[in-house]
Amino acid sequence: xxxxxxxxxxxxxxxxxxxxxxxxxxxxxxxxxxxxxxxxxxxxxxxxxxxxxxxxxxxxxxxxxxxxxxxxxxxxxxxxxxxxxxxxxxxxxxxxxxxxxxxxxxxxxxxxxxxxxxxxxxxx
Length: 124
What we know:
By secondary structure, the chain is mostly beta strands. It is 0% helix and 49% strand. It has strands at 3-7, 10-13, 18-25, 33-39, 46-51, 57-59, 67-72, 77-82, 91-98, 113-114, 118-123. The strands form two sheets. Strands 2, 4, 5, 6, 9, 10 and 11 form a seven-stranded mixed sheet that branches.
């Protein structure tokens, strides 16, 4: 069955960095667009970054220039490098797969599968 397993979350001070990973299995990883979403307490889930099967990337305005999404198709793994973290980045971060090819801007991302989430906490 399909599994998306996130890791790498934790607690850091503002200005710090974290690298999230998402190990995918149970489907043909390279043929799916992948993305990261987050949900803070009391708020709706929001898209953070997406990467297409062709490597095209898109980001939410709030993380542009600070976060970098990447994928390793040989390892079936998705990454999110987060730098210059802010307290407002505190949230549960979810890995997502979207059955589509080519460019996958966040605006058109329609999740087929979700991971269970990894918590990121940024203190001031």
